[in-house]
Amino acid sequence: xxxxxxxxxxxxxxxxxxxxxxxxxxxxxxxxxxxxxxxxxxxxxxxxxxxxxxxxxxxxxxxxxxxxxxxxxxxxxxxxxxxxxxxxxxxxxxxxxxxxxxxxxxxxxxxxxxxxxxxxxxxxxxxxxxxxxxxxxxxxxxxxxxxxxxxxxxxxxxxxxxxxxxxxxxxxxxxxxxxxxxxxxxxxxxxxxxxxxxxxxxxxxxxxxxxxxxxxxxxxxxxxxxxxxxxxxxxxxxxxxxxxxxxxxxxxxxxxxxxxxxxxxxxxxxxxxxxxxxxxxxxxxxxxxxxxxxxxxxxxxxxxxxxxxxxxxxxxxxxxxxxxxxxxxxxxxxxxxxxxxxxxxxxxxxxxxxxxxxxxxxxxxxxxxxxxxxxxxxxxxxxxxxxx
Length: 388
Ligand SMILES: [Zn+2]
Prior knowledge:
This protein is an alpha/beta fold. It is about 25% helix and about 30% strand. The chain has helices at about 40-45, 80-90, 105-120, 155-165, 180-190, 205-215, 235-240, 260-270, 320-330, 335, 340-345, and strands at about 5-10, 15-25, 30-35, 45-50, 55-60, 60-65, 65-70, 70, 95-100, 125-135, 170-175, 195, 215-220, 245-250, 275, 290, 295-300, 305, 310-315, 365-370, 375-380, 380-385. The model has no long low-confidence stretch (mean pLDDT about 95).
């Protein structure tokens, strides 16, 4: 019974087994070995996949993504969620959080309802792990491309509680410098929701307080936050130095210069970095003008901007982010990939189940050839994408 993948370069967190083999039963990796599989395994497994010595990599986990292929989670539509999940597996992403942005309460509830209904395994797509609330409790001075009129503080407790009511909410990103938001940080921490600082003007001292309260993640480090200054190190200074914080990084070389990516890597290592796409509905579509959150945007060579030039999310895939980051930081793939698989899993507390090729974990993986092409992607033991 089960599925055997053999003759692969298997990327485990500790080493690369080359060649190696991996056995899957139902949705779980049950055994991993070096060399050729034992004859008994070869005989008894029902499905055998010869990996032709290509790289077998852990499925990527995108914690911060708004959409792709013309669809967004704010559309509050099951079909949109399926289309995005099916696009993701073509790029090696096997699990993700659906990210919302600042909007009226009713709009957010509608989006969260749709995410809650689709929560879990999606047919022929990546697993929807839950929701990431990016706002609305942010600093209007760091709105970025978020609609400023919907940015507010968590003064209405009933409203905020209704947004985090569903157990599938995994990350709440807010501006931790506002005392009105302190209670929400405490409530999220007590419920096991990862709290991120994002779209924030916090000082370094305010970040120390926030981390003491339990803030553990920075929403797209360097973007929409107080920058590093030698007299006021800001949120970026906190991300560069505080071991409690993991830093999301949009490694598209537009949001963050390759040198800044390298600096963050040199200070924090891959363990301090979580690669995210922050991709919007234009991802996967050709260059041109589109409407994003009711406003026109221009897409040109992977850059997505409002007409005034403000960056409006990205057109990035996590697959490309991984390649960009490895190059910018000067690290080999086996190390860089941890920032797109194991560390995002740790950031939301699911590393016992996902994030690496190890016995006992979900069979979330993909096979990549020498040229970086993804040959197939498997989610929870099922092949959901094959390159034609
Ligand atoms: Zn975002």
